[in-house]
Specification:
Blueprint (H helix, E strand, L loop, with lengths): L1 H15 L2 H14 L10 H15 L6 E4 L7 E6 L8 E6 L18 E3 L2 E3 L3 H21 L7 E6 L9 H8 L1 H4 L3 E4 L4 E5 L2 E11 L1 E10 L3 E2 L8 H14 L8 H10 L5 H12 L4 H8 L2 H7 L2 E9 L5 E2 L2 E10 L5 H12 L5 E6 L11 H14 L5 E6 L5 H6 L4 E3 L4 E3 L11 E3 H19 L1
Parallel strand pairs: 3-6, 3-7, 7-17, 8-18, 9-16
Antiparallel strand pairs: 1-2, 2-6, 4-5, 5-19, 8-9, 10-14, 10-15, 11-13, 12-14
Helix pairs in contact: 2-4, 3-4, 4-15, 8-9, 9-10, 13-15
Length: 455
């Protein structure tokens, strides 16, 4: 009897799912099971697996393209034909994920595990959950005979997380005709915020920081380790990094961050909420800025940041180091520029013998104002699914594939229907997970958003 009751309890959540949600779960399970890391994975395998589903749903050969610059770096482009009343709309999402070691995890990272109300697996949050919701939406539209007013394009791409074959950049440069659109929706940005167990607001990415890395290098003649020399490459580099640690870029709010602070302040109690509201009123409020600067999440919104991420030095345990190097990664505000950031880093290091060279150049873009049609569609769908939920513009402190579209003149807006706890975001980390309910809600949200925008 106990086993029978346990089996019924296990089936109860499944019975509560709609057919699209059940199919999306199957898609998520399939995608999590395909390793799409840069080092050992195969993006093409994931793209082709989704192409099989689209063909079975009725998409024709000319509506599907699996294409890429290298054997393991395939991208899938799907087109749902519309009436031609307007230019196409593009939806993008990346299939690749960051590395994950089984020895680090409580679960197999490349097997979907449901436990305690969560789905675990590499990519559940970033971003195979959103990919599954998008695939389901495009399958469902085809089966239902939905005819949008314009072509709707879905691009599932490679190497957003790293690697040399970024799919969006490659498609823009080599097959622009496949993805050319009036604007794009990027599901790898924005998304819902959960605080203290409650849905507080839905963020829409209106800007993002710019990625820039420097290589720092000190060289010395070296020598025998038994004779301490006055100059030591490791000491010199460490000294510069210690000075860089104490340096802070100035606070610089702009229209997106100021609006974000103003609209999100009511959802944070105590001093944080008060300081957000104060800075929205007066960006020169030094006391409020200083308090928020102590919180990494808000500090990243306030200013450009630069941190060391890699370090190496020396060539033998019994020899003085001839070289010492470090990598410093910066995420600068879209209203700053790369030259000023480089100059500030050099001044902060305070040592002309520390050579600074650009390792990963910046890809700055001009941010465009939010399209009111996009905001209206997002707002109406969110109100339908989560009545009363506020919409808050947001600057993403990471980076996304939107930069390649923006540089090509295609406006891109970031939003996801996935709600994540602000204090438990495990993307790129151990035991990455997504709330089961959030995943199923995002399936509904994605379908409603795509069809609303496509009408």
């Amino acid at each position: 009897m106990r086993r029978w009751l346990a089996a019924l309890a296990a089936l109860a959540p499944l019975a509560a799912q709609t057919p699209p949600q059940r199919e999306a779960r199957t898609i998520l399970e399939q995608l999590i099971g395909i390793n799409t890391t840069d080092a050992t994975g195969d993006n093409t395998r994931a793209a082709e697996a989704m192409a099989v589903r689209f063909r079975e749903a009725g998409y024709t050969t000319d509506e599907l393209r699996t294409i890429g610059p290298a054997p393991r770096k395939g991208n899938l482009v799907v087109r749902l034909r519309g009436t031609g009343a307007g230019r196409p709309i593009l939806f993008i999402a990346h299939l690749d994920v960051v590395e994950a070691l089984r020895s680090d995890w409580s679960f197999d990272p490349f097997h979907l595990t449901e436990d305690g109300g969560y789905f675990y697996g590499r990519g559940t949050t970033d971003m195979k959950g959103d990919v599954s919701a998008l695939v389901e939406a495009f399958l469902r539209m085809k089966r239902e005979g939905f005819r949008p007013s314009r072509d709707l394009i879905l691009a599932l791409t490679s190497d957003e997380e790293g690697g040399t074959a970024n799919g969006v950049a490659w498609l823009v440069a080599n097959h622009r005709e496949l993805i050319d659109a009036e604007f794009a929706i990027n599901h790898d940005a924005g998304g819902g915020h959960i605080k203290n167990g409650k849905h507080v607001f839905l963020a829409v990415q209106a800007a993002e920081k710019v990625f820039l890395s420097f290589k720092l290098e000190v060289t010395n003649p070296g020598g025998h380790s038994s004779r301490r020399e006055k100059e030591n490459a490791i000491y010199q580099l460490a000294g510069g990094l210690a000075r860089l640690e104490k340096f802070q870029f100035p606070v610089r709010l702009f229209d997106v961050t100021r609006a974000s602070f103003e609209r999100s302040a009511p959802f944070y109690t105590g001093q944080v909420g008060a300081d957000l509201a104060a800075l929205a009123r007066d960006p020169n409020d030094a006391a409020a800025a200083a308090r928020l600067s102590d919180i990494p999440r808000w500090n990243a919104q306030l200013r450009t940041t630069c941190v060391p991420t890699m370090l190496s030095g020396g060539h033998a345990e019994n020899a003085l180091p001839q070289t010492a190097t470090a990598v410093v990664n910066c995420r600068f505000l879209p209203v700053d520029n790369a030259a000023d950031v480089e100059g500030a880093v050099k001044r902060a290091l305070g040592d002309p013998k520390i050579k600074v060279t650009v390792m990963t150049p910046a890809k700055p873009v001009t941010q465009k104002p939010m399209d009111p049609r996009v905001m209206s569609a997002i707002g109406s769908v969110a109100a339908k699914l989560w009545p009363g939920i506020p919409i808050v513009p947001e600057m993403d402190t990471g980076a996304s594939d939107s930069v390649y579209l923006l540089a090509a003149g295609i406006p891109a807006y970031g939003v996801s229907g996935d709600f994540v706890d602000e204090d438990d975001n495990r993307a790129h980390g151990k035991d990455e997970r997504i709330l089961v309910k959030s995943f199923y809600d995002s399936v509904n949200f994605t379908y409603e958003l795509v069809t609303t925008i496509g009408k």
